[in-house]
Write a structure and sequence with these properties.
The protein has 553 residues and is of the alpha+beta class. It has a domain of 331 residues: Glucose Oxidase, domain 3 (2-Layer Sandwich). Helices cover 25% and strands 19% of the residues. It has 16 helices and 25 strands. The strands form eight sheets. Strands 10-2-1-13-12-11 form a six-stranded mixed β-sheet. Strands 7-19-20-21-18-24 form a six-stranded antiparallel β-sheet. A three-stranded antiparallel β-sheet has the order 16-22-23. Helix 14 packs across helix 16. The longest helix is centred in the C-terminal third of the chain and has 18 residues. It is globular.
Length: 553
């Protein structure tokens, strides 16, 4: 939703939002620091904020948390504008190498990869959807050598961190209260949310808590929001540390190298801040939590990575490990957009008004509280998954709008779609009432890599996810798209006149519409990331040659 351009004029009013919620204050940060700490945590994002908070609960240790970005701002608090935060100063704004089997409709065949460069990391840019992994995911980790990471091992920690504000869900035993991370259902929903749930029921998917006993089903999702505003890991885990004297948080600190002693033990971190280079020693550990891109980049710059690659760049090898490999990402085929005949979607001209703006600022209510426009999640099994296993292979995001809902401002800026694709497929529907279905591939078999582009720590690394290079991925994706089409044909969607976009799709119109060949072409033309890159520092059994860290990290 391209609302960012309107928000600067509203910033004076946003102060009221801070007055009504003390927890939106930013954490204390410092412009000075000690020369040595027990623990140094690099990256204050979705994991780093949690780790630093937890470690500093012990008053006998001293913790330093380094973050390359700065604090959150007022705009990042607004759930609906999540997409508009991309390609701004809080985003690293990475992009992939040109893709050989996908992204045909994107400029240069490159996918743009947002990553949070801010306290809270990508929890400041994401869509705030509270979705745990399937229990079989964790059990599979343990089967592959990550002992201690099975579902029964990790489930108690989900409960420990959670402060769920919906009593009926808490009573189920699968949720908890009292943790740092606020989880709640958005206070606003369009009428379409009910239609999505009814469509799921019509094709055999129950309305359930997807974080409960079973995952296969559809749900109006909960999100990491607090009183209608985003609850990032910075707000959840760092703001409560404001009174701790043993935690120092330093922002705008770009880590450039890990220094090792003669025994190959990490002893210090080197970082740049305000055009000066600093070195801080660690008495116990240096913990990297800079994400699936920046963590492998920092390791390789420091001599930890594939020997051949490091030697090519003249970097002395500290440890020969497969850092940067095993890159995987959640992707979906864009383009499943549905035109409707009822004025019930989230349309920019409809919600930019004093009533809705005040509703959010003063009370944390109204359309601005929706999770980036996502109003329903559906976990489904394609024909390639076993329903009895309750291990869905696709997750559908139902968005009560589409790239045309704001006239294309956000879509064209953050997704990097070609002008031809926009003009032909999207432009005819600008500012019309629409919704979208995004079927996300949950267990991709295509794997890519991250490598250094140079020895310059400010040079973005080479990112090649190799989307859709494994044949099974496109088969699963096409079948998931057919399930989406079946949902569109249900009475729940037809009563709002649901009809797929029929405008020309460049490169695909020689295929009959909605055949397998057309759907495959659509998926390869507009291949979209859901912003979940993982795997580049794989955890596993120490004897596994693809492992970077053991189960003790």
């Amino acid at each position: 939703m391209g609302l960012l351009q309107y928000l600067p004029s509203l910033l004076p009013f946003a102060a009221l939002l801070y007055m009504r919620a003390q927890d939106t204050f930013v954490p204390f940060t410092k412009d000075y620091w000690d020369t040595e700490y027990d623990y140094i945590v690099v990256g204050a994002g979705s994991s780093g904020a949690v780790v630093a908070s937890r470690l500093s609960e012990d008053p006998n240790v001293k913790v330093l948390l380094l973050e390359a970005g700065g604090p959150e701002n007022q705009i990042t608090d607004v759930p609906l504008v999540a997409a508009s935060l991309q390609q701004t100063p809080v985003d690293w704004a990475y992009q992939t190498e040109p893709q050989e089997a996908s992204c045909f409709g994107l400029k240069g065949r490159r996918s743009r990869w947002p990553r949070g460069r801010v306290l809270g990391g990508s929890s400041v840019l994401n869509y705030m959807l509270y979705v745990r992994g399937n229990r079989k995911d964790y059990d599979n980790w343990e089967r592959l050598g990550a002992k201690g990471w099975s579902w029964k091992d990790v489930f108690p920690y989900f409960l420990k961190s959670e402060d769920n504000r919906d009593p009926p869900l808490v009573e189920s035993g699968y949720h908890a209260t009292g943790g740092y991370l606020t989880v709640s259902t958005p206070p606003y929903a369009t009428p379409l949310a009910k239609n999505y749930i009814e469509a799921g029921l019509a094709i055999g998917y129950p309305n359930i808590d997807i974080n409960g006993e079973r995952q296969g089903g559809w749900m109006i999702p909960q999100g990491t929001i607090r009183r209608g505003a985003r609850c990032s890991t910075s707000k959840a885990f760092l703001v409560p540390t404001r009174g701790r004297k043993n935690l120092d948080i330093v922002v705008f600190a770009h880590a450039t190298k890990i220094l090792f002693d003669a025994h190959r033990r990490a002893k210090a971190i080197q970082f740049d801040r305000m055009k000066n280079t600093h070195i801080i020693n660690a008495r116990k550990e240096i913990i990297l939590s800079a994400g699936a891109i920046n963590t492998p980049q920092l390791l390789m710059l420091s001599g930890v990575g594939p020997r051949h690659h490091l030697q090519q760049l003249g970097i002395p090898v500290v440890a020969d490990l497969p850092v940067g490999y095993n890159l995987q990402d959640h992707i979906y085929p864009g383009g499943i957009h549905i035109l409707i005949n009822s004025p019930v979607s989230i349309l920019q001209p409809r919600i930019i008004n004093l009533k809705d703006i005040n509703s959010f600022i003063l009370f944390g209510r109204g359309p601005f509280t929706t999770l980036g426009g996502v109003e329903t999640l559906g976990f489904i099994h394609t024909k390639y998954a076993n329903v009895s296993d309750d291990w869905p292979d696709v997750e559908i995001h139902f968005v009560s709008g589409s790239p045309v809902s704001d006239g294309g401002q956000t879509f064209q800026r953050v997704m990097g779609v070609s002008q031809e694709l926009w003009d032909s497929f999207y432009k005819p529907y600008v500012f019309r009432d629409t919704f979208s279905m995004n079927p996300v591939l949950l267990r991709p078999k295509s794997k890519g890599y991250i490598k250094l582009r140079s020895t310059d720590p400010y040079d973005p690394p080479i990112i090649d996810p190799k989307y859709l290079t494994h044949p099974q991925d496109i088969l699963t994706m096409v079948d998931s798209m057919k399930i989406c089409l079946s949902a569109i044909d249900t009475p729940a969607i037809q009563k709002v006149g649901g009809k797929l976009f029929e405008s020309p799709l460049p490169g695909c119109d020689h295929f009959p519409r909605h055949t397998d060949a057309f759907l495959e072409c659509l998926a390869r033309t507009y291949t979209a990331t859901l912003y979940h890159p993982v795997g580049t520092c794989k955890m596993g059994h120490p004897l596994d040659p693809t492992t970077v860290v053991d189960p003790h990290l």
